[in-house]
Amino acid sequence: MLRSMFAAVSGLRSHQTMMDVVGNNIANVNTAGYKSSRATFQDAMSQVIRGSSAVSAARAGTNPMQVGLGAQLGSIDGVFTQGSIQLTGRSTDLAIQGDGFFVMQLNDQTLYSRAGAFSVDSTGGLTGPSGARIMGWMPMADGTIDTQQPLEAITLPTGQVIEPVATSAVTIGGNLPATGLAATPTVVTSSITIYDSLGAAHQLNFEWTKTNDATQEWTLDVTSPDNVAGPAVSLGGGTMTFDTDGTLLTPATGIITLTAADFGAGTPQDIDLNFAEPGTELVQYGDTITAEARLQDGSEMGFLRGFEFGVDGSITGRFSNGLAKPLGMVALATFNNAAGLQRQGENIFAETLNSGVALVSQPGAGDAGVLTPGALEMSNVELANEFTNLIIAQRGFQANARAITASDEMLADTVNMKR
Fold first, then answer.
1. What is the count of structural domains for the chain?
2. Are residues 176 and 282 in the same domain?
3. Is residue 55 situated within a structural domain?
4. Nearest CA among 353, 351, 329, 333 for reference residue 341
């Protein structure tokens, strides 16, 4: 009877722990990135009343006779199934779809988390709610990101300046009229804004004049009101001829170069005028005029106005001059045994001897999942399962309490036999 009482006590303890685990899961039903836990039991040691015996000619073999001494906690396992994704619209919120953990650094310790509710501090550092710095890769001097380099804290400094780019090429396309006559010159004009080496804007004016009907020849003259030699002085140009099918014959390369165009605000620059860009070539058909300068590759100085995350962890800065530039990349860590990680509170895990070493990669590479920007992964707690486990824990606790009561009554009856 004492064995049954102490066995029931062990059952009470085990079911109390189960209730603690279930209660903690329910408490975190709305905790972003939370991974639920489960408690499992195993029987305790058993007392041998009689050992087993072998088969002999005189008698059959017998099985061992044992009495169990109760239950004990077998394990409390982390359940790392995928949580649902909830859109938040907040630019610094990130959700992981698939395996992996964000890599963080707090007090010189490397930690891991599934909760992507990040923000930017006063220095531009990407941080978690606990103040941990989010780790990844920053651009190198040439602007590229090398994921083979050591991890570093991601910094997104607002107000960052992107240097201006001097225009080196202008794409010109459209149609020059084939019906124009040199005797009554057809003049076609167009203009475009370009930039010098200091990022100052200047206007280029293009003027085509038909000069020969037999060879379908046009003369191009390029001027600029900002030309240091005078607004009416040509920056360059040349002759252009077309085949009978309307395609450009000369220049054969489809390019005319303005050499050392000088606008006085920066270094003189060579500008290639490209008339043969596939899909936007300059041609000569009919009498419609659509010839124009369409694109140029220069830009003014720009300031960082915002940034956005990609599913591959890339962070792209958007600048005031319309250009984009990589600002960094978020890293993810995967483990051979994620259930072996140790919970540190605040949605943070730490590596242990049984979790395996963190395998760091960019999102989408190897076993790592991808990111969903502007969203959070919600808790993976299933309330229906937890409420069922509540009933199981309660009934298990209740049954063990009844076993103690029954054992007590049997002891009382034994004591009363003396009367």
1. 3
2. yes
3. no
4. 351
For residue 20, give both structure tokens: 């603690």
Beta carbons within 8 Å of 230's beta carbon, 6+ residues apart: none
- In Å, how far from its chain's centre is CA 34? 19
- Bridge partners of 80, per DSSP, are none
Q: Which two tokens stand for residue 287?
A: 């009498």
State which amino acid sits at residue 156: L
pLDDT digits (tens, 9 = 90+) for 12-29: 999 999 999 999 999 999
If asked whether residues 227 and 180 sit together in one domain, one would say yes
Residues contacting 417, CB < 8 A, separation 6+? none
What mean pLDDT, rounded, does the chain reach? 92
DSSP string across 281-297: -EEE-SS----EEEEE-
Encoding tokens for residue 332?
Answer: 């993810």
Give Cα separations from 120 to 27, 37, 155, 347 (angstroms): 28, 31, 8, 19
Judgement on whether residues 150 and 188 belong to the same structural domain of the protein: no
ω into 251 cis (within 30 of 0): yes
285: containing domain:
169-296
Reduced to 3 states (helix: H, G, I; strand: E, B; else coil), residue 404 is: helix
